[in-house]
Amino acid sequence: MKEHIDLPEWIFFGIAGITALLVLLIIGFLIYAAAPVLRTSGIGFVTSSVWDYDAHQYGVLIYLIDTLILTALTLAIAVPSGLLTAMYLAEWAPAWMEKILRPLVELLVGIPSVVYGLFGLLVLSNFFMDYLDPLVDHLIGFIPVFRNVHPNLHMNLLLTATILAVMVIPTIVALSQDAMRGVPDEYREASVALGATRWETLRYVVIPAAFPGIVTAVVLAMMRAMGETMAVVMLMGNTPQIPSSVFDTGYTMTAKILNDILWNIADPEPRAALFGIAVVILLMEILAVAGVRLICSWAQTRSRS
Questions:
Q1: What is the pTM of this model?
Q2: Which among 23, 43, 113, 275 is most buried, taking Cβ atoms within 10 Å?
Q3: Close Cβ partners of 208 (under 8 Å, ≥ 6 residues apart)
């Protein structure tokens, strides 16, 4: 009997293989391009804070810390807003309201990052100047810890994090809502039958069941914030220092790559150093994905026990 060839299976396998190959090629290219500086600098590439092309010293510590601070502040703003929006859309919003709000939230994804940067620079920064400047002056005058703060309300960490939060909220909302909608209705009905309120059902039944999807949404949003470039270059001030407050300027790794690559693309060593920054970002995101896998595995094991 002639063996039947499942052609769609092989087509899908080929497409999946091409996708995996592209990922490996990109990773290999980054490591190959950064190898000369990574070999000479070693662990000092991450632990040193000196970046000097003339002295052939390359350390990303300040840029790494600034990236982590900006990402953490962005998530502190975006995660509560995104999760509360997803909860409303998944559990309380009428069908007609969900059909209006969900597309509006998703529409934020289509706005170019340079437009977000311009909005922050021309609109949101003026709002900060008009409303936050008096508040900061009040805090500086009455709270001792703020007396050494010298706010830059035109470009600063908080302004950048606010814009990034708007950019990543659609990811959190869409994936978290889908995760909550994926929880079987039988779970909700059983909880309500036992006397739980709608909020108690959401808190103790729906969210734990949807936890892996919610964590995935947060991590993908974190990776988006960590890798954003144009809006960060326009709003954070590009000052290589560790911010002393949320009103201070800073310099992220992606901004360093964008600002320096055009001037150093033809010089092998500086180019390799900038690709080294990309490798560090890649490793951070790989660790984030691995963390998601572990958390989701732990949550699934706990739910079965």
A1: 0.88
A2: 275
A3: 299, 303
